[in-house]
Amino acid sequence: MELIDQHTKTIMEGCKLRARDAGLRFEDESLEYIVTNRDLIELSPKVMIPTLYDYWVHDVEVLKEKGKYELYPGNPYETVINTRPAISFYNDNNPDWLNVMIFYHVIGHIDFFQNNLYFRHTWDYDFNGEALSDKRALAKLRSERGRWVDYVIEFTRGIDNLVGYHGLLSKIFSAPDSGISEKVDFYFDIYLQDIAKVNISKYIKELERYNASINEDSVMGEQGFFSLVDQRHPEFGSLFKKHQAAKKQKPRDLLEFIMENSKMLGREENQWMLMVIQIIRKTALFFQPQIRTKIMNEGWASYWHETLYMNDDRIKGHEVDFARVNAGVTAMPRVGLNPYALGMRLFYFLEEMAEKGKVSWEFQHMADTGRRKDFDAKTGKGKDFIFNVRENFSDFTFIQSFVDQDFVTTNKLFVAGKRLNQQKMVWEYYVKSRSADDYRDMLMASMYHPPNIEVDEEKTKENALYLIHRFEGKPLVAEYIPNTMLGIEYLWGGPVQLETMEVVATPQAPRMPTMPGIPMPQTDAPEPRELKWQRVLYTMHDRKLSRNAL
After folding, report:
1. pLDDT (tens digit, 9 = 90+) per residue, 270-282?
2. Distance CA 457, CA 532 (A)
């Protein structure tokens, strides 16, 4: 692995200038390395962070990927990581015209990393440098504690998808940055709505009174506003203090709760485990936004590599080469999902919609098909709108907000079904639905969504940790429950209970009677069966798992 040569670096700097002229914003410094495919295989299990801590699972993944590469050799174009400065990796056999396209794609990623608010907690430090420090710390612990370090890593990684990522973001974007104090948030968001339970008209009057106080005196307006609140609601002050105390004491996730409350980890001889858990938790939090913005991130980078490349005079004579490579990256599959293609098309669609004013309230509530088709307010705000989307959305809100029937119809998208052709005994794919609701549901089902598991502090008694799975329609994967709870029991130092929902077996519906000689209808749907859910309690005690229905 080595830095790119000066000729290639000059190409990259030229791409940066053109990208800035188009409106992209990113830091000046970046590092570009030439790597071999073998280097990429070894970096992939570490999510391309060269300094990430060593772990035996990474070695297993390397061996597996080497075996795949021998059977199916590939040649990835680039990889970029969200560090300070941003680091990207390239193959050593790319021609200049291809590097222009790849550099634009990388710059799109860097712009996304450094401006999308879901990455806000990663902006103020260099994760690559911290990862190196963590790697050395774990190596030192291994020399002292041996295999126990890897046990703690494995048990912690079993629940590192439960980290309080949104809680961390809410803390970052709380009062100091918004200009609104915590007291104001508590009054309007909690006290008036959940405690006083005022009606809407009274709530709006209080909001108007607050705005009038601030407009009259930006410094002392809040104090004057709350002087009247204290007169009307004498209990407000004490309730706010209790809220502050509870908020400070409450951990954001399961790992944080275990670190603060585990008696086993509190023993002097086990203090080293806290460092290991903190490293794993911090690493998991760093990668959370990348998992949650895959479609947006790749779509944004693809949009810009295509937009900027087509206007770059350095590609003259290689338009056909570019078209061939670009089609391979951004082609929309008929079955399955390509995040590059879907995200790019959605950004193009939104730009056109905003240019014509079709993101307005007026258009969205227009029912006449002819008027909708011919509507064009010529706002000229297409680019501004997609830059705003890039800054404020994640995949979930991106898909939920903008994948509508117009988008599905314009791009000829559909949900594919699968059925068995009983005559030919082959599987067939067919168009199951062209509805935007069905297509959006399919996309939502493919997204990352870890279970919501919380600690019930009232039921956590006598050293037994009580966990509640906030059921959202999907059960936990049963085969992972024993090992995961075994790891939690070790870190907690006592019994662990998990309350969740599971499907109760019900009799299968009888098949429809058929006439002799008439084949059964071909369908990909299973026989209809009523689902019944039951609350169950898993208990892990002394490394033995039991299950009881509640």
Report:
1. 999 999 999 999 9
2. 29
Is-contact 15 71, C-beta < 8 A?
no
Which residues lie across from 498 on neighbouring strands? 467, 538
Lowest mean pLDDT among 211-215, 381-385, 406-410, 541-545: 211-215
Cα distance between residue 485 and residue 497, in whole Å: 8
Look up the pTM and report it: 0.82
Q: Is 439 helix (H, G, I), strand (E, B) or coil?
A: helix
Q: Is residue 420 part of a domain?
A: yes
Same domain for 440 and 461, yes or no, is no
Residue 425 lies in a domain: yes
Residue 121 lies in a domain: no
> CA separation (Å) from 376 to 79, 81, 171, 407, 409?
39, 40, 41, 17, 19
Task: Name the residue range of residue 186's domain.
Answer: 171-249
The pLDDT of residue 421 is: 86
Same domain, 335 and 438: yes
- What digits encode the pLDDT tens for the residues 311-340? 888 888 888 888 888 888 888 888 888 999
* Residue closest to 536 by CA, chosen among 495, 503, 513: 503
Q: Is 116 helix (H, G, I), strand (E, B) or coil?
A: coil
Looking at the domain assignment, is residue 366 inside a domain? yes
Which residues on adjacent β-strands are paired with residue 547? 538
Q: How many helices (H) and strands (E) does the chain have?
A: 25, 11
Residues 531 and 473 in one domain: yes
Task: Assess whether 388 and 463 both reside in one domain.
Answer: no
Residues 8, 31: contact at Cβ < 8 Å?
no
Same domain, 176 and 144: no
Question: Which residues lie below 8 Å from residue 174, measured CB to CB, with a gap of 6+?
Answer: 182, 185
Q: Tell me the C-alpha distance between 40 and 191, whole Å.
A: 53
Counting the structural domains of the chain, the total is 5
User: Structure tokens of 480?
Assistant: 């992972």
In this structure, are residues 434 and 413 in contact, taking their beta carbons and an 8 Å threshold? Answer: yes
Q: What mean pLDDT comes out for the span 223-244?
A: 85
Residue 189 is given by DSSP the state I
Residue 540 has a pLDDT of 95
Residue with tokens 């071909």: 522
Of 450, 469, 492, which marks where a domain is finished? 450
